[in-house]
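User: Show me a protein chain along with its predicted structure.
Assistant: Here is one chain, sequence first, then structure tokens.
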Amino acid sequence: MTTNQLRQKYLDFFRLKEHAIVASASLLPENDTTTLFTGSGMQPMIPFLLGEKHPLGTRIVDSQKSFRAQDIDEVGDNRHTTFFEMLGNWSLGDYFKQEQIPWMWEFLTKVVGLDPNRLYFTCFRGNEALGIPKDTESAELWQKLFKEVGIDATITDFPERDGMQNGIIFYYDEKKNWWSRSGVPAKMPVGEPGGPDTEMFWDFGIELGLHEKSLWFDKPCHVNCDCGRFMEIGNNVFMEYRKTEKGFEKLKQRNVDFGGGLERMMAAKIDNQDVFLIDLFEPMRETLQALSGKKYGADHTETYAFRVVLDHLRAATFLIADGAPPSNKDQGYFTRRLIRRSVRFAQKLGITENFCVRAAEQVIEMYHEAYPDLVTKKASIILEMNKEEEKFRRTLATGLKMFEMMLQSVEDSVAISADEAFDLYQSYGFPIEITEELAREKNVGVDMAGFQAKLKAHQDLSRAGAEKKFKGGLADHSDTSVKYHTATHLLHAALRKILGEHAEQRGSNITPERLRFDFAHPTKMTPEEIKATEDLVNAAIERDYQVSWQELPLAEAKRLGAIGLFEEKYGEKVKVYTVGDPQGMPEADPTATTFSREFCGGPHVEHTGVIGHFKIVKEESCSAGVRRIKAIVK
């Protein structure tokens, strides 16, 4: 079984359980200003978990592309990756524990073929103070399934304190067995949904937990320790709570949210805890070995470098395809960082020639069937990847010259100052680890304490700016955000009318203070074009069009003139919002009965007249061939 086959078997399994298969959403969230990236399969589903009707019904299955920037510095061990695929199935107020747990048992043991004797499960211990009970139902369901195959599965508590206790099913507190986007209940904002979960683990062998070099050798081994013996491969979240000002209350509907790491599940299938040995990495791994003359797995330091490159270039390929080319801000900053770290760690392997394009091509080849958009965007991916590698190799050369100049002033102070190290990092893009390594070779030090202080001050300043920038947003469903969201539909239609149908949406970002809209257009808009766009949007607002939605087959929605960037995530049936008469054809003309029709998940105002006066405050370049408008309503 290949990893691509495993993904398809999962989708087919739940399709037979009457689930609608939906395509992965973009790595760049639509209309969610609370985060830069889609970091879980749950993220795009939040409106439907809260009760909004999904166009395809109450049973959904997909494999969601995910990216977690916070894990960049964790990559290098045998299981952390920044990019991964999350197999997901959802019950939106439909089935619950009694169905989901047996289905996952069937999938893991019969479809994937994992040995039940090496599966372990955890459940929520409960929290009396929050009024949330212990999840004995899930534990007993797992126990019953073990019994059916002749295994006496003991249920135990406090494994983090007392170890395995010969158990197979364990209770943990909310730090381990509670799930929401924001973590434990105490950190959840009001309005956020969450719930207890039951997690699934694969046992790679008791000898890993007893290794004398393990940091955990003298501590109790349990499924959530870090000795390397166990790997989490799946997680059933039973999302039935929502945080309120007074505590937790039950949602209007009980939901199931399963998330299973595709790469980790495949590692369990091949019974090797190194996810970088699954087949999806094989072509790139072999290329790196050929270019470097080094063998993956032969040396710990070199294997660490291999893993960084393998992970980072796969992630960068997908990020560029989804609209985040390398840049100095927002999502593109992380794409740039991934490529630059890849080049640096490839140098540790002795690779000094350009190689990123070859790696990206191999990523595209391995994923082209599951993600055909990689093929259609291949030229852009190759262009951006090559451009960034070339630029950083020049940066390395410049940084090395600056470093040599700095060495001349080090004789008296015997250390490169914090100012000098930070200048290399900030002005020349010179990674601090390179500065440290070069300094060691010259037997001089680096003021790392001072550098970290400067870096923290810089990060705090950047974070404060980001928090201001991303404060609020459509995710809070505030009245102002909803007005701005509807205004983006009017703007999109107006731009296509004024500039031409090529002016398609490339992204949006909405806060209660303003809207930001990215669209395809090769040149700067003229003052006359900006004024004409404003006038057209305001005319539609003044017309006070009705705003309504309907569910339609995808082909029918397109026939009726629906536009939009995000139609692909809905599958064969879509939700369409119409500004004006839902029976008419959109014309982006305030004298017409129908102004616009667009694929969208909502929410929107009921009438355009409540939006207010629309004003474009800035029009600028976003990236090659993409312009950006910032606008406000008064």
